[in-house]
Amino acid sequence: MNDSQNPSALRSKKHITDALLKLMEDLPYSEISVKQIVLETGLERKTFYNNFTSKDDVLDSIITGTITDYVLALTRSPEGPLTVIFDFCDKNRTFLSLLHKNNLLYLLLLKLNIVIPEINSSMDISENPFCKLIGNLDPDYLIAFNIGAIWNVIFKWVDRGMTDPPEEIKATLEEYLKRI
Amino acid sequence: MNDSQNPSALRSKKHITDALLKLMEDLPYSEISVKQIVLETGLERKTFYNNFTSKDDVLDSIITGTITDYVLALTRSPEGPLTVIFDFCDKNRTFLSLLHKNNLLYLLLLKLNIVIPEINSSMDISENPFCKLIGNLDPDYLIAFNIGAIWNVIFKWVDRGMTDPPEEIKATLEEYLKRI
DNA sequence: CCTCAATTTACACACTTGTGTATCTTTTGA
DNA sequence: TCAAAAGATACACAAGTGTGTAAATTGAGG
Q: pTM (2 decimals)?
């Protein structure tokens, strides 16, 4: 991703990300080409490559944006992390199902694995509900344990069509994590 | 994947998977082309497409083979699942680091999420160490919780260079999972 | 309002991909 | 042992990819 703040560049990037999301509603991600994206936007193909390195790069920038919003909510909300997560999932239902339809939900996990430890390193571990330590293992492992568990439960929830009541899943997850 | 058992086809498939693994030792996965793979094998490009649909399809078949071995060990070994998993990781160190180098470790998680529930459905849930239920949530969620947690801890272990003693991680994981 | 740097456009080029078709070779099984 | 089924080879072709270059356009600051 080229992160220029130039207004023309910002406009192009916005058009391109919008076009990809729009196309993903009708087509499998794997069948969308850079050519189709620029056709949708009316931009020149070269302009695409001025701003992104590939189609995957566009999706990555969309996901980075989405996760950044989530992380802001996580650090600012008075609610616990699980509440914030399930709010986030509820707000992003269509995006989540779009990702799931294309087997791309794992991208959120990869991004969370990068972002969450960064937040945690700037917090007092003893106050962090994601970090009740056992033994002398590095706290990174406990964070990984929690992120993996929570994400995979959400993955299962999306996989089942996001119809199971989130409150129940949230409550059970809370119960599990409390015991650790 | 074309799953013909014809000896010529089997030979071609073996050459192709071997070639991909060999190339991955020297090149990033994303930079490997189908052209390079067939060049490495000496096969015709068309032969590649007779046996696989794409480069990703080749990797998928390698991973399916690897996971099948693991699942066999899991169902047959007298040891608990965590012991089997850490044996598996130890035996496949080079493959794991190859996947990690290319940000592809998540493929194992996706495959496990398909394969493990299938095993579990043919077992008595009450005897299954991955399935101590709480509340009235579908057991699938608990399986998802455990797979996600374990996989992400292993992911972190690989990420840190597979140098932390596996026994310690295994013991801590066992401790966590026992409490649930 | 004008200038200059950044961006977009409009091409061109070499390269990879996936598919199709005809022919030769290998394997199967009656 | 030999016919036919399946696979490999050797091409060809349309389409997409990523990069390069020069000219036109945009917009932010003096």
A: 0.92
